[in-house]
């Protein structure tokens, strides 16, 4: 085998490895944005407490960095529904589409 052919094969194999690695990384699901609705009505995003009114902007900003992320709303099972509905409403008005609600006992 000629030296030029060997180098061509090496370049093709490296290109293949890079492309396959990139495709694999694109299929990984990013970690969700966690919104916790506590029993007393407080809202936390990734551990930081904030007002419900500020929730939409915070989540939208995080989704701009990676629109594939989903939003997990973890609500205390003993909290009243009057606490959850405003949170879902703010997320809806902010254009958040991929929302998963989880009741935490």
Q: What would your notes on this structure say?
A:
By secondary structure, this protein is an alpha/beta fold. The chain has helices at 3-27, 52-65, 81-93, and strands spanning 33-37, 43-45, 48-50, 71-76, 99-104. Strands 3-2-1-4-5 form a 5-stranded mixed β-sheet, with helices on one face. The longest helix has 25 residues, at 3-27. It starts with a helix and ends with a strand. The mean pLDDT is 86.
The global form is: rod-shaped
In percent terms, what proportion of residues is strand? Answer: 15-25%
Largest sheet, described in full?
Answer: 5 strands, mixed
Low-confidence stretches: none
Mean pLDDT: 86
- Helicity, in percent? 40-55%
Order of helices and strands: HEEEHEHE
Main β-sheet, spatial strand arrangement = 3-2-1-4-5
User: Alpha-carbon distance between the termini?
Assistant: 67 Å
Number of helices: 3
How many beta-strand segments?
5
Radius of gyration: 22 Å
SS-based class = alpha/beta
Please tag this protein with its features.
single chain, 105 residues, alpha/beta, 5-stranded mixed sheet, 3 helices, 50% helix, 22% strand
């Amino acid at each position: 085998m000629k030296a030029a052919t060997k180098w061509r094969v090496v370049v093709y194999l490296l290109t293949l490895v890079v492309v396959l690695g990139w495709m694999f990384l694109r299929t990984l699901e990013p970690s969700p944005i966690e919104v916790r609705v506590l029993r007393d009505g407080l809202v936390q995003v990734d551990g930081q407490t904030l007002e419900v009114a500020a929730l939409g902007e915070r989540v939208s900003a995080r989704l701009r960095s990676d629109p594939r992320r989903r939003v997990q709303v973890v609500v205390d099972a003993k909290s009243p529904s009057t606490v959850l509905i405003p949170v879902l409403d703010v997320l809806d008005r902010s254009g958040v589409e991929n929302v998963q609600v989880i009741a935490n006992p």
